[in-house]
Structure prediction request, 299 residues.
Amino acid sequence: MSKKKKQNTTKYAGSAFAVILAALLSYFPISKQLNEQKTVNEPQNQEVEVEQSLQQSNDISLDEAVISVQNLEIPAKLKDRSEKILKRSNYTVSYNRNWNLPNWVAWELNKDETRGKNNRNEEFTSDPDLPKDNQVESWDYSGSGYDRGHMCPAGDNHFDAKAMNESFYMSNICPQDHELNKGKWNDLEIACRRWANRYGELYIVCGPIIDKRNGKRIGKEHEVIVPEKFFKVVLITSTKPVRAIGYIFENNSSERPYKVHTVDEIEKITGMDFFPNLPDNIEDMVESRYETSDWRWYN
Prediction:
């Protein structure tokens, strides 16, 4: 090969190499920039999946958290009293076979469940899933002076015929003062349906508070303890911040039979642990406070 031709070949090879090198140098900064931009623009997943990892959620603030947990309404297992868990289509009951009452009844109430065409059937029935000795009958309350007071109300079950029928199981019922049952207790039930319509869904736990020393009894065949008080706790996770509140109701005819509490205070009074499936940092914050202005429902 001639010297001139060799020089030309070298010249062309050098030019080609320079073009390739320039393309590579221009690609990497752009690629890096695109990757950085993609990272910045990707939405941050703030949903708290408790069943996957509670620890990962501990750095999420109360204002940021979007809670997505199955059975969020279910309290922790009780260790100091009789407990039989009964699953219904729209609620869960922890039944105390020594009291013939629920320890608690828990359910999620969403917007769609606040309406429906299934009317109250008004027929209270014994719970077929309990032993015969614990199958309290409607007539056990007859002549007692107490209403058959729903824990999970019929008004939360109009959306489904089976759910409505199950709400009249006597395992969902407690002896309740008539004025309380038709008054403030009912007012709070209505308010919960209003909140469910406004916020999409909420989680509710309620039940009796028993004086184990002096509890009054009623019953024709099955002995039923009369509660001195009732509790109700409500949790809303769709708001920012997440919020919760608790109430204690006296089982009497007083004009203002209830007091407002934090969930922590209700836990101390009842000996129960509510909403244990919340991430620990969220549970600690939401159960230790409430804002009265967030929960207007009473006169």
Notes: The CA atoms of residues 179 and 253 lie 5 Å apart. Residues 1-62 have pLDDT under 50 and may be disordered. The domain at 47-295 is CATH 3.40.570.10 (Extracellular Endonuclease; Chain A). The first strand starts at residue 47 and ends at 48.
